[in-house]
Please model this.
Amino acid sequence: MVIDLNDVIPFFHWLPGALLYWLVIVAIVTGIATVVAWLVAAVRHGPIVAMRLTWRLLCGAVDDLVRMSPRRVAALAWLSIKESIRRRVVIVFIVFIVILSFAGWFLDPGSINPGRLYLSFVLTATSYLLLLLALFLSTLSLPADIKNRTLHTVVTKPVRASEIVLGRILGFAAVGTCLLVFMGVTCYVFVERGLSHTHQLTADDLRPLQSGPAGEPAGLQGYTSRANRHRHKVIIDPSGEGRLEMEQGHWHRLTVHKEGDKVSYQIGPPEGMLLARVPIYGKLSFRDRKGQVEAHGLNTGDEWTYRSYIEGGTLAAMVWKFQGVSEKDFPRGLPVEMTIGIFRTHKGNIEKGVPGSLAVRNPQTGEKVDVRIFEAKEYVTDVQFIPRQLHTADGQPRDLFRDLVDDKGEVEIWLSCVVPQQYFGAAQGDLYLRAGDASFPLNFAKGYLGIWLQMMLVIGLGVMFSTFLSGPVALMTTLGTLIGGLSHEFMFKLAMGQTYGGGPAESFIRMLTQDAVTVEMEPGLRTATAQTVDALTQFWMRLMAAVIPDFGHFSFADYVAYGFNISGDTALTFTCRAMAYLLPVFVAGYLCLKTREVAK
Amino acid sequence: MQSDVVVETQSLSKVYRDFWGRQKVRALKALDLEVRRGEIFGLLGPNGSGKTTTIKLILGLLFPTSGKALVFGKDATEVTKNERIGYLPEESYLYRFLNAEETLNFYGRLFNMPRAVRRQRVADLIEMVGLDWAKRRQLKEYSKGMVRRIGLAQALINDPELVVLDEPTTGLDPIGTRDMKDLILKLRDEGKTILMCSHLLADVQDVCDRIAILYQGELKEMGRVDALLSVRDVTEVRAAGLSALAQEELKQVIERNNGHLLNMGNPTTTLEELFLKIIHESEEHPGRRVRGVQEAQKD
Ligand SMILES: Nc1ncnc2c1ncn2[C@@H]1O[C@H](COP(=O)(O)OP(=O)(O)OP(=O)(O)O)[C@@H](O)[C@H]1O
Ligand SMILES: [Mg+2]
Model:
């Protein structure tokens, strides 16, 4: 999972800059739109008249946007809701239930991480269904109204074009929101039900452990019964307290009842499966094999932009620097969670994992204390606890907060690989302090907020396109925008010329000539043409990348599925971003409707 | 003081263009019209002569290619003028998934009418168009005439000063037609202005004060209906209670120019005849106003 750390700026730090940026963009777009409007009018009516017409349009626009009547907007929204009901949106809900009931057979609660599987599934299913619904509703409505001429009866009432566009957006948003809430609740119940299971444990399942040298009892050990294709190892202390080990990302609470001689065990529902971990991220830097600071580690060929690697058995290390670490937040020590990538140059025992070392360093004094050697397993989230009491190599005691966290509350965590010729890799988000857990249902709801934001963007764009395009064309355009937005990153790279093998035209020629992407093309007319075409395409792509919203970014599904809390800042920031995008889209839709002939 | 002219067009022209901006049809050529307060004005013309186009331009549904359309002295594209207008389209373009009550309520809300006023008005209008018995049924179950009635009710929801009716009687049964005509006259008597277009000549003749005749987008004739229809070189005699002998005698008397006439005036042809004559002459001499009738209009 790629966590975008740019998002984690606190909302109120983000807001002023973003607002300014937004205002500048809006001003520029307004300026361009005015010039375009003037040009169009000038072609038809001459420059002087065009100036008057443009001025009138601007004044009219301000008037129409400011003087909207809530009652009319409500009436138009109500109409859209009625229309949606007539188009049988309920069917979507039925389809959804059918999908869920089929999924109940196919989703395996016995897989390695069933929580993640279930959550990804429900979130993806909901978002696809809902986005499709939003797409169809929003793009087909207005063109149908124009085609059936029902709009004639409406626009000959004192209705402003702005009210028609806003009413539509709000109406469909209401329908979508209702469905989303229903789906969300259903999904939550579905996930809870699908994952809930329990195991049986009786006294016969437990065997006494080898007792110590003095013959003192060492407790009991055994396995629970199987459920969902797994069982848990049980360890019961000599004191009688028992616990179940983690399996498939969860554990159960064990209660022991004693009635005279008879002991019975009761196992609770699964815990730790549906989480909303609150991570605190640090800033990652690397040390090369001689111990010198560098911004990036090595590339091992795959995943080259995301993870960087360090070589084992050298001074190379990955260093995370954390800020604002205080005794108050972590009274017992630092809980560190990490997911390390391993690149093996020799196989060894794949099952065994590669030993690595974990250390803490005070960035001010430079004192570094080793915490322990641990076994890194490939892509398994490992939990390491750094206790308060630590010891230097020569046995001197050190206190975590007094000696290793500096006055500014900063501390460094160092990871290095112990085995020569093996490599550790990580990205910034792969190691974090787990500050605690937030409420999972709330996080789940925030995941749905992400879908809601995406839906709102689709509705806004759909209605906007449908003000000047016919139904099917508006549908395809919105769909194209949606797909473009979902593959935003790729498009952006294409636009910046960061992919191998050149742009589309060059790639096409390479395909014909079967050249490898890394071979330079021989100079000539063909190459020159291809590169010119690509330069133009690139400009266009860059423009598109700037205009199309980054839909993928608005999806919080990964956060929910991987059990990370979506911070309030993230939720707020993205809500604001979506609204900031919707506002100009709405105005554009309004202008298109206003300047078109309804009866054409 | 309010001006006496409710609708005015100044050399209004409309050219329909296709997607590429190429000229397709010149639907309206330099039309000058004036509809005055309190009159019933009829637009006449054969199919495709530009009646609906004129109305759409006046309502701001289309933008003129050149010239101007003014309603209440404001540009036709102003939204606020719609507060005082009621429009019944060619066919009733209403949402078929709403029922009569919902439809009227919806349009009432578009006029920003408060709930209490709206409810009363909706009830009154449904009563007026005689659809009380079917007000809870969706419009898609309605017959053509019933939809038309709701369309009319919808046009009157705001108690408009200017009522624009595009083919008001199509789809109505004879009684409905009669009711519609009575209603139009009643609206006029209430001081409202009515602009209607139709090719049902009898209807136009019955209700209109003034008419304009369009042919291929050009204004061919405009004037008061009674003036247009008078035929000056014929004398009509209407007498009652005369025996055959007396009639014979009357003829003689008239021949000698000193008879007793019960009624002597200008008889009228039917509008239909006039209409056909104009179309016929226009085909022979395109681009010219029809002469004979134009003179008639002068007095
Ligand atoms: N949307 C349009 N695109 C292109 N041409 C059109 C369009 N609407 C109307 N026309 C043309 O404009 C001319 C006038 O049409 P209009 O609808 O105004 O006639 P009309 O007098 O209302 O006829 P009818 O009595 O049949 O209703 C016709 O030639 C018609 O083909
Ligand atoms: Mg017509």
